[in-house]
Fold:
Amino acid sequence: MLELLYGVFVGPVKDMVTGPAFLAEVVIGGLAAGLMYSLVALGFVLIYKASGVFNFAQGVMVLFAALTLVGLMERGAPLVLALLVTMAVMGALAFAIERVVLRPLVNQEQIILFMATIGLNFFLEGFGELVWGSNVKKLDVGIPDSSFVVWGVQVNRLELTAAITAAVLVAGMAIFFQRTRIGRALRAVADDHEAALSIGIPLNTIWVVVWSAAGLVAIVAGIMWGAKSGVQFSLSLIALKALPVLILGGFTSVPGAIVGGLIIGVGEKLAEVYWGPLVGGAIENWFAYVLALAFLLVRPQGLFGERIIERV
Amino acid sequence: MREPTGPPSVTSGVPLLEVDEVSVRFGAIQALDRVSLEIERGEIVAIIGPNGAGKTTLLNVVSGFYHPSEGRIRFEGRDRTRLRPYDVAALGVARTFQNVALFKGMSVLDNIMTGRLLKMRGSFLLEALYWGPAMQQELLHRAFVERIIDFLEIEAIRKAGAGTLPYGLQKRVELARALAAEPKLLLLDEPMAGMNVEEKEDMCRFILGVNDEFGTTIALIEHDMSVVMDISDRVIALDYGRKIADGRPEEVRADQGVIDAYLGVSHA
Structure:
């Protein structure tokens, strides 16, 4: 009994204190993974805020973006050109989704729009594989997956690049949505559709902008994950990891998505490394979900989400 | 802001708004039944009628939220029967809602600034950097909004979250947002519902002031007959989706059809 208590409460802390460099490496690895989760969650939040749609297809959009990029590069397009074309494709996709899916379903129940995104999910998955093939592809963005050492701490080049890119993207979006006219319109739409329409905000244009932004986020997430573990169907499953991030951060909060992602990224790495041996490992696979479950019990609106008070 | 305009010029020819034989059906319900009316520039028109008479439907049709099943709507002489709400807003029609539709997560100032969105032009990049012409533009719009804030006497709450305000003030902020768009036609759906006497008096003063100082044409739905009599130039009464009276306030008040609609009449 005492041994168990020691193993849970004292041992890991002692390990952390005695090996600070290793702790730093674990935390950095966690932050890097966490930023990736944040990116995917951000795609969800953007769309959810502006249109109240929970976009089940966000994960597949990541896969689709990565597939398109790799497919183009396999056919000899240089990275920059492939990237630009992929961006155009995601923009066109946003446009098409607005026309074919959102517009006909405007004013329908949320659950119906949600079902529509499940359909979109299957369509994109099939369409992507039809066009680009279903074999695992290697994505080489020219950054070696190797490490360098700062103050005795190993830092992975690819992860560092990914983290910086994600941070720049997130900061850019934050400025765009806070400062610009479209950003103000978008916040208005997120707040009240009817009122937004009445002051002359074209809802449809806003939806295209938002889905394009989510597409852009999907490209970045797709490149980073794809470069790390290859472009394959399992990429779309990282959307599952975004769910606990959303529950933690709140579905409507951009900062929440970022902080939630970081907490889960760091949390699962720490749990895996320090507490994993106690239960035979593999904590990383379920840690996020258990944390989310705990949050649902205590604070269902998430860390930054809007508290929903309904009059009855 | 415009100079105070005189009484509406009767000679300008085309009315600001023409509603021509408009019908709206929701399934079996006839919400509007061949309603025709005109609103002249500079007028304050009150739309009255018992619950379910079709008043809000009429407002929704004019502002593009519903489309008529039959009939036409003309604004400044041009047909715009099938425009969508944001196109209507771009033409210069602003509105408020029966249940206040503010952006509750934003501050009062931001709410009113959204009313200026249609007036803003320029590059997103500059806006993002908050630099050059973009900053100048922002300041100009900000100055205009401040004048509206002064006008409606809501200086003290400009930084407050819109969702945290008491109902009466929310209505005032919603009016401010509508005014920020410098509308030619302002549609108010029960601007005084749920207010106490003092708040109603304030709101009356503002509505008259808007009409007077900005020359804005106003159509409002209102239940309080003393308010209607006080502020409107003309009253239109609806009942069961049909127009039953249209004229000067005292005429409409004396109209037997209107009295019957309100008090009920035995259809013997």
